[in-house]
Every structure is written in C-alpha cells, then in structure tokens.
Amino acid sequence: MSESASVSVTVPVSVSVTTLGRVLAGLLSLLAAAVIWLPSFHILFSDSPNEFLSAEGIPPKARKVANQHLSLWTDPVSLGKEMGKMRVRNAEWDFMARCYFVWACGNMALRDPALKPTVLPIMDQIIDQTISLEQEKGMYFFLMPYAQTSPFKMKPVRSQFLDGEIALMMAVRRVVEEKSAYKLLLAERVKLMVDRMEQSPVLSAESYPDECWLFCNSVALAAIRISDFLDGSDHGEFFKRWVSTAKRKLIEPRTGLLYSSYNLTGEVLMDGPEGSSIWMAAHCLALIDYDFAKDQYERGRKEIGKSLAGFGYCVEWPVGCSGSSDVDSGPILPFIDLSAGSTGLAFVGAATFGDEEFLMKLHRSLNLGGFPVERTGRLKFCSSNQVGDAVMLYSMVLGPIWKKVSGK
Amino acid sequence: MTTGFFKRIAQTWRAPFFSPQGFINRAIGLTAIFAVCHLAGLREYTSFISGTSPTGDQLDTFMTVLGCAYFVFYSLLVLVVPVFILAAIIFRIAWNFPGV
Questions:
Q1: Which residues, 6 or more positions from A304, have their beta carbon under 8 angstroms from its beta carbon?
Q2: Cβ(A346)–Cβ(A339) under 8 Å?
Q3: ipTM value of the model?
Q4: Tell me: the pLDDT tens digits for A318-327?
Q5: What is the structure's pLDDT at A16?
Q6: Do A36 and B86 touch (CB under 8 A)?
Q7: H/E element holding B59?
Q8: Do A384 and B50 touch (CB under 8 A)?
Q9: What is the Cα–Cα distance from A125 to A242, expressed in whole angstroms?
Q10: Nearest CA to CA, how far is B97 from chain A (Å)?
Q11: Which of A12, A144, A355, A389 has its CA 20 to 30 A from that of A78?
C-alpha cells in the first residue's frame, strides 16, 4: 500500500518538473531568438544606396519602376485596368499618378538625355490627355464626390489641386525642352492661380469648396516659380508674402509645422500638420524659400518620422494633432500608427533634403512591406498603386529640375 | 517500411510545442501555408494596404480578405519563422548544455 502510494506521487512530480523545465527552456530559447532576430533582420531588406540614389544618371531601382510605368502608358488596356482600381476609391489618385509620373519623366530626361525621345512623347500624351479630360468631363472628374456637395467660394470656380499640378506638369516639360503649345497654357494657368491666391488673406486658393490645402498651394507655388524661370516673370515678392503669411497664420504652435488644410480666410484651421501634406509641401517650398522648407522637413522628421528595428516609417499626425484615417493618410497600421500616405511621401522629403539615413530606412520598409514584384526588368509594388509607385519613382529621380530652376 | 516512415513522420509532427522539433514543425507549417498563398498569386491582392481595391470592385471584400491572409502569413514568415528556427537551435544547444 505504502509502496504504490510512493509511486503515484513520484511520477507526476517528475513529469511536471520535466515539462515545466522544457517550457521554460523553450520560452527562454524563443526570447533569445527574438532578441537576436528582430533587431537584425532589417539587413535582409537593405538596398545599397546606389540602387535608389545617384547624383547623375538613373538609379537601377528607379529605372525598373520607370520601365513598369512606361510599359503601362503604352498599353491602354492595362493602364485602364490599373487606373480603374484607383478610381473606385479616389479619382484624385488617377490624376496624381499622371502628375508624379510626368514630373519623374522630366527629371529622368535631364539625368539621361538619351531618354528624351522616349519620355517626352509620353509626357505630352499624359498632359494633353489630362487637360482634355478636365475640359470634356469637368474638374469634378478628378475630384472626390464631396467637391459637389457645396458651392466653391472663389470665382471663377476652379480647383487649385488641378491647376497647380497641371501647371507643374507643363512647367517641368518645358524645362526639359521648350514646347510652344504649353507656353500660353502655362501662363494662363499661372495667372489664374496667382489671381485666386491673392483673393485670400492667407494667399491660398481652394481645392475643394472653402478648403485650401497646403499640398496643392505649395505645388502651385513651385509651378509659378518654374514659370518665372522659363518666361522671365518675377513673383519673388508674392513668394515672400506667402511665406511670411504662412509663418504668421498657418503654423501649428506646438510642432511649428504648417497646417494641412484651412478655409479660404485662414480663420478655420481644419486639419493640423499631416504627413501626407508636409513632405511634398517641404519639397515644393524648397524652390521658394529653402531654409523655411528645410526647417519644415526637419520638424516633420522629428514629429512624424519614426524608426523601428532599422526600418523607417511615418505616422500621419504628430502627437497632439491626431485626426482620422482617410484617403490621404491611407489605412493606419495598428500599434505603430504607420500611415501609407505619409510614409510614401516621406521618400520625397528625405530625397529633397539629402537625408540618406532616413531614406535608407524607408527603402528597407518599402522592400519589406511594399511587396515588390520584379519581372523582365520591370518593378512594381503590389501593396501600392499607380500613384504610390509614381511617387517612389519621383523620389528616386527628383533633383535635376529643381537644381536647374534654382541654379543651386 | 513505408508504414514505419510515415509513423516516424507522424511522431515527429506530434512533437511538443516547446521542443526543438516542435519549433521546427511550426516553422515548416507556416512556411508551407505562406508558399501556398504565394503560389496562388495572393501577393497581388496586398494593394488593400494602400486602400486600393485589388480588383477594381470596391465591394470585393473576398479579395481583400485574401490579401490580408497573405499579409499575415508573410509577416509570420519574416518575423516568426526565423525566430522558431533560431529558438530550435538555441534550445538544442541549451538542452544538451551541462546544468540546463
């Protein structure tokens, strides 16, 4: 009796001790493995900086993304399919994909003049087609539906979103090579933009009814600046007033970053600083006031740029200025608040201001979470779309147009 | 002999979670599921990450779910599978280490 009792006690204790030891050893092994792997796995996704960055010529990664776009723009069926995927969600993306690609083509043509015969006809095709669509279907074709829910305040009714980006497309085209047909069209659009901006106390024109966007107005400023370079006009005094007005009325006090959207009078500040606006705004403002633009970039980098385990990403809103996820921010990744829109445009900001360290980290994130697919020398990012890929391309080739215009 | 082989495979597969073989089994399982997702072409559907419809039909939630599945198993492949493999190696070394 006593012998059997001894066995019944000893065996379970022995088993449970063994199991407990194994579980503890297993947990410690997992912990040690995680401590080794998680801080170091970014190495697998690192590109050599030469892949995406070069002072001259076109970096290999950019060339592959460009090949994908060039093949799409010569294949109307595939292009229509890709644009259709975006238009069901946001008609703006259809428009912006065109603009970013044209801006990228302009820079590529300056980087590699042998590409001119290839890219100039495509730039012209995109610009002409975009202007035709705007004329035939109206500006609402490229705007989100809420543009029609209330009346625009400014007359004539126009959207700075379209005017600025179309003007910048024509301006970039003309920097690469003069095209007389665009000279008058650009001058008309520049006059319209400046006249409308002058009507507002904050020197900003509306993109949507009673909504002025920093993104659109800074793109417009860049287009006006390039038209000065091309046509010998001088809006220097206007640029100075714009910057000084922005510093006085459009700066969020805690972060020192520009607000993303505001009403026509600048009295109602609608959206605080946003990653989906500030990076591109800083890029465009670099043509107007480099020091101010660089300060905005550095503040954005501090407030919105993040690093985790060797990967770079951006949140959409700085602490204390939170908003809600929308088409600009893209979906927000839980726990780390990564915004696809903000992170994508951060490539443009980092490339403009030569922030190689952050750019390297951003490219790691792109290789990790962009789901790249490379086939026959063409590269696309499955988690992105045409506009996202065009922004990536632009970030890898930008520079020559700004350099030529600013002379720096 | 064939029966013995499959029996051994089955025994190996039933290894406890907290064991080197258990970790390797999980790594193999996750890799296999990811491989199926990848070969099925689900990578294309990850456009949901940028808020873009994978097919052009905004109501096509099924494709979005497939894209999410790819994203989840890709994340597991990149983040968890190597940890399981490293943990199995560490476990094996530690288990045979005197005093552990």
A1: A273, A275, A278, A314, A315, A316, A317, A318, A342, A346
A2: no
A3: 0.87
A4: 988 877 778 7
A5: 61
A6: yes
A7: none
A8: yes
A9: 33
A10: 11
A11: A144
